[in-house]
Amino acid sequence: ITLNEVAPITQRMERLAEKCGQIIQRVNAFAQRRELSRTRVDLVALLRRIMRNRPSASDVQVSAVLADAPVWVEADALLLEHAVLNLVLNAQYWAPRGQQPPRVHITMQVASGMAGIVVSDNGPGIGDDQIDHIFTAFFSARDDSAAMGMGLAICRSVVEAHRGRIEVDCDPDLGGARFTLWLLLADTAAPATTR
User: How far is it, in rounded angstroms, from Cα 186 to Cα 189?
Assistant: First the structure.
């Protein structure tokens, strides 16, 4: 590998390491004091960024149907991106454990002054014995050593700090788990500080 080939790789590593550091600092500050750094965030752009930058699973088909126009919320963009990415990565983990070729589907809904981000997979779904515990800290149904059982607990805390809610059920089309993250739409008269 030449020096010219190494340079963009190390630059990307530096950007990712810096972003990881920011996420850790923000999650830590949020966990200690529930601090949010709110700006006006376009959910469509945020989801496109997640789709573009997420770690891919080569055997999982991931598709997204997003709105054509911006969907604005007042949010801490870094924490919100972390929460949604966690749901996408969980779906990518569980989809190959179902009976069909693994699929993850991401959609958006807008209803009653709220925007919904829906992440579904065709994995085994969530058992009745687990449904009451999935948002409990340190609970994990995963069988790998990387699972700490904090991801969904942090997701719910982030969403609730944004005055939103997170719902979980079975996806009627894919048959696996479906997580819907609901957030209040931003006031359209608010100044447009974008991220």
Answer: 8
